[in-house]
Amino acid sequence: MRFPSSVWKITLAACIAATFAKANAQGATPNVAIIRGTVTDSATRAPVIGAQVIAVGTTRGARTDTAGAYTLRVAPGNISIRVQRIGYAPSQRTVTATLDGTATADFVLRAVSTILSEVVVTGYGTQNRAQVTGAVTNVTGEEVQNQPVAGVDAALQGRAAGVQVSQNSGEPGTGISVRIRGAASLSASNQPLYVVDGVPISNDPLSQQIYPAGSEAPTAITGLDPNEIESISILKDAASAAIYGSRASNGVVMITTKRGQSGKARFTVDLSTGIQNAATRLKLMNAQQYITYMNEGAVNDGDDLPFDASLEGAVSTDWQDAIFRTGPIQNLHLGLSGGTDALRYNVDGSFFKQRGIVIGSAYNRANGRVNVDYDATAKFRLKTSLGVSRENNDRIEGNNSNDGIVTNAIGQPAIYAVKNPDGSFMSTADEDAFGNSPVYSNPVAIGTYDRLPSTTDHFLGSVEGNYLFNSHLTLTGSAGADILHDHEDQWRSPLVVGNYAFGAHGVAKTSFDNTNHYLLQSFLTYQSGSEDASSLTAVGGGSIEYNNENSSYLRGEGFSSPELQYVGSATNLIEFGGIPNNYNLESFFGRANYSYKNRYLLQGSLRADASSRFGVNNRWAYFPAISAGWVLSDEPFMGNFGSRFGQLKLRGSYGKTGNQSIPNYATLSTFGSGNYGSTPGIQPIQFGNPNLKWETTKEWDGGIDWYPFGGRISIIADYYHKLTSDLLTRRPLPCVTGYCFFYDNIGNVMNRGFEFGLNTVNFKNSSQGGFSWTSDFNISFNHNEVTKLYSDQPVPGDNYRNISRAVVGQPIGEFYVLHFKGVDPATGDAMYSDDRINAGSPQPKFWGGLGNTVGYKNFELRGFLEFSHGAKVFNLMRIFADDGGYAYDNKFTYALNRWRNPGDITNEPRASFDGTSGGREISDRFIEDGSYLRIQEITLSWRLPAGLFAMRGFSNAKLYVSGHNLHTFTKYSGYDPDVNSNGTSNIALGTDYYAYPRARTFTLGVSGEF
User: Fold this and answer.
1) Which sign does the torsion angle of CA 246, 250, 253, 254 carry?
2) Residue 835 to residues 40, 807, 818, Cα–Cα distance (Å)
3) What share of the chain in percent tops pLDDT 90?
4) Cβ–Cβ < 8 Å for 844, 813
5) Are 971 and 384 in contact (CB under 8 A)?
6) Furthest-apart CA pair in the chain: how many Å?
7) How far, in Å, are 78, 238, 293, 452, 797 from residue 989 at the CA level?
8) Who's near 803: CB < 8 A, 6+ residues apart?
9) Measured CA distances, 883 to 73, 400, 922, 928 (Å)
């Protein structure tokens, strides 16, 4: 794998810094005192394994081993030692350490609710769950691992309240739509900001020259291996996310990768293999049904019969069978971690391979990651996080594309064979037994001959240094890089002949897109003593970010041989282009957290951002936030409520965030080269708007956290109201001006909703290996409404005939179509209202998930359901396949219930090809209910007895078998209701235009360590 020189420079700098740090540490070794001890459970007196032992105010730390023992090396003196572990209340005490002996300090920890003790990663720091005052959801690494999906974002579906994840397409390696608390923008991105180990990831869409028609661009974290992840914190409200200012209006997803712990080297392995197949099939006509329909339509229209009614010589091809296949899927992950008290490391390597369920599609990914923590001295710590990946993706023409494999398989009638008697592929040059030539291309030929491979190299790394001035003040400085290089070669073969073929001599295209994102930041952290009644933590600093993108493409046609498949062999270059893009972001930020008696909690933050994407008059924007929490259960007037019913906390917050997801030069008028006849010249490209302002979101949030019955139940509920103003979108212009649109701030959008999360320990046997049962449930309600638009004029979507709109008083993307009033019993013609009506919203009324985990002895059974209710889907396939207006398309079997004779009562119009029946009109006949309940996962695992591999050094060995996307209960007639052929489009949501089907997956895996 080749990466640019900048990557190696960053890596080399990290290694040099670590080398100097090691030299400094070796020089300091003689002045080290030793503290040893054990950590045990207060109730069982059993050792607490994996507890973190920290010398407060230094970089020194250790982990307890299987006996609960630890050894800590510190500078001599009075040292404050803090011990903490998830599931236990932390303990802290002062120990005197001298050079002439070993100090002993034993700790006894009291078990508490796991949720209360979990660590939540926030911007530029961490917080204990009990101290959080904003709306933050934690997802553990275990919840996203061992799932047969390529990306982390896909694994989040249904796992977190307020987070809506849509797969859009089942094609391997394609993009995912993630929306936190509703759609807040019309044209700007609705995707959240991803931050991996402190580095914000560029989420701007890559040049669409890279991706074939209808194919989905990957998201910012598609190349991240889920097995590398330690935890995910989702910052949902503005008070939590405002520390990231101009990019946080859609929420922030904080991803923390695994880091090493002191102790002997530990090697882990996780290997899984499985198969995938199409979860559903469309109900299409066979040859006899199709011929009968076509002949009946000809009679109704007064035309000659197109087919011989005897059906002699007819074939009946199931084109879905022809393009679908069973696809293997494999995943191998290897990990190595360990280290000393001073130097700790975690190394991950993985390979993921997925063969798509549609011919011609596949996705492979290789990952490598090295995370190192080095305590150079008692005052200085160095931390590096370096990750690389390579993705090889064999794409196919897919969603929203007339020339896609799925499109041609559904549209191609069953009367044509896949191959001719001589073994060649059927094409438009071949007639069927009745003398008719097909309209569509042969989808199997497309999958066999066309090639659309892409390669994506991704480097994501950071180097961070921490200097502790004293036990209260720490200086942090870091540098990060997010470098993404894409390359794709597209080949449309002349051997594919049909209505959607690409020329008699082939067409080739090569595209490149290089995106480089660099970050420099530093901040000071102040933390008061934790033993005081009141405590204060404050962070303040600044950052500079530089982003550069260079894209280019070249397209040619005319190849002397189908074997010459690269653009350099073309006889005619027909299209080329490329342009550099860059922008900078300068920021200052600060946050303070105050706690009094751990009962009264207050947090405030402010961020100032300056983006080069805006003009000088609007370059700076300010994003304040404030939140407060009240642990009501600790009040004296509540008596023993806390001890009997658990911690009860009330929360409230307000904050302001922004969105800068517009083209880099939208404020400038731009020009480019062009031709007038054969004369070269300069032509206008874009009309600039120097008055563009930031898109801003103001959000109010109120919540309650309750952990009754000793934490066996956790209830987290939030109500929010957010208003996004100065929406950034395109406004049309008369094209005679030389420009067809420009960017402007045109309106407001409101989202309000309610989120509820419930985790329960239903049964837990105190004896090891006893029966246990836990459940987790979340549900989210969101109401979206456009409250203001420029001159209150609707904004059309970019889907089929612009049936989606943004209209004041309605949710974004409502469908506006004719109302289908049924079929006239006398004539068989469809009947409609005169005007378009509001036919519903593609946004669900509520969604969520339900999981259960049952354990007994060494067995564990886990199941997860995901659901969504109230969304509408525009089934565009039916307009072509289910309606006689498009004569040559195959038909859905619904048309078997069509009108045939006067007096028939049905909702299917008569067969007709001249358009007089009205069946092809866009109406609510094609708007379907997209509600569903999905059996997302069932996994059975068996942890092998500890003594089985003891002699070979293995431990924690586990076998597991799982099924994913097992069944979807829905009324929707397409492949899957969770679809959007327009990808991450905001206005044109919920359109199904021959989307790549979603796969059902079965896997068998084994994991262990030694």
Assistant:
1) positive
2) 74, 16, 6
3) 48
4) no
5) no
6) 108
7) 62, 25, 33, 26, 9
8) 797, 815, 816, 817, 874, 922
9) 78, 19, 11, 16
Contacts of 490 (CB under 8 A, 6+ apart): 212, 451, 452, 507, 508, 509, 510, 511
Tokens of 656: 């302001």
Token digits for 918?
A: 């009205």
The whole-angstrom separation of Cα 453 and Cα 391 is 10
Where in the sequence is the domain holding 480, given as residue range(s)?
136-1009
User: What is the DSSP secondary-structure string of 166-208?
Assistant: E----STT---EEEESS---SSS--SPEEEETTEEPP-SPPPT
Residue with tokens 């061992």: 146
Residue 35 lies in a domain: no
- Secondary structure (DSSP) of 798-818: SSGGG-EEE-BTS-TTEEEEE
Say which residue the tokens 């020189």 belong to. 5
CATH number of the domain to which 609 belongs? 2.40.170.20
Contact in structure between 476 and 525 (CB atoms under 8 Å): yes
Q: DSSP of 386-442, one letter per residue?
A: EEEEEEEEE--S-TT-TT-HHHHHHHS-TTS-SB-TTSPBP-TT---TTSPPPSS--
pTM of the model: 0.87
24 touches 380 (CB < 8 A):
yes
Rounded-to-integer distance, Cα 230 and Cα 141, Å: 5
**Beta-bridge mates of residue 330:** 273, 353
- With respect to residue 118, please indicate whether it lies within any of the assigned structural domains: no
CB 111 within 8 A of CB 41: yes
Spatial separation of the C-alpha atoms in residues 269 and 280, rounded to whole Å: 34
Q: Has residue 82 been placed in a domain? A: no
Question: Could you give phi then psi for residue 923, rounded to 5 degrees?
Answer: -145, 180
Answer whether 288's CB lies under 8 Å from 265's CB: no
The per-residue pLDDT for range 426-471, each reduced to its tens digit, is 886 666 555 556 678 899 999 999 989 999 999 999 999 999 998 8
Q: Tokens 């799982």 belong to which residue?
A: 962
Residue 15, H or E segment: helix 5-28
Q: Amino acid identity of 605?
A: S
Cβ contact 187:729 at 8 Å: yes
Residue 334 lies in a domain: yes
Nearest alpha-carbon partner for 907 in 964, 993, 824, 986: 824
Q: Give Cα 112 distance to the centre of its chain.
A: 33
Residue type, 621: A
The one-letter code for the residue type at 487 is H
Domain count, the chain: 1
Helix (H, G, I), strand (E, B) or coil at 212: coil
Tokens encoding 493? 């073969």
The residue assigned the tokens 């190849």 is 559
Six token digits for residue 350 = 């993985």
* Single-letter amino acid, residue 748: N
Give yes or no for a contact between 207 and 217, defined as CB atoms under 8 angstroms apart.
no
CB 455 within 8 A of CB 514: no
Q: Lowest-confidence range among 22-36, 822-836, 993-1007?
A: 22-36
DSSP structure class, residue 735:
G
Q: How far apart are the first and last CA of the chain?
A: 30
What's the pLDDT score for residue 919?
Answer: 74
> What does the alpha-carbon distance between residue 270 and residue 1008 come to, in Å, rounded to a whole number?
7
DSSP 491-532: EE-TT--STT---TT-EEEEEEEEEEEEEEEEEEEEE--TTS
CA-nearest of 786, 722, 804 to 749 is 786
Give the pLDDT confidence score for residue 634 in this predicted structure. 86
State the pLDDT confidence band at 936, using cuts at 50, 70 and 90: very high
Distance CA 180, CA 657 (A): 14
Q: Which residue matches tokens 């034993």?
A: 106
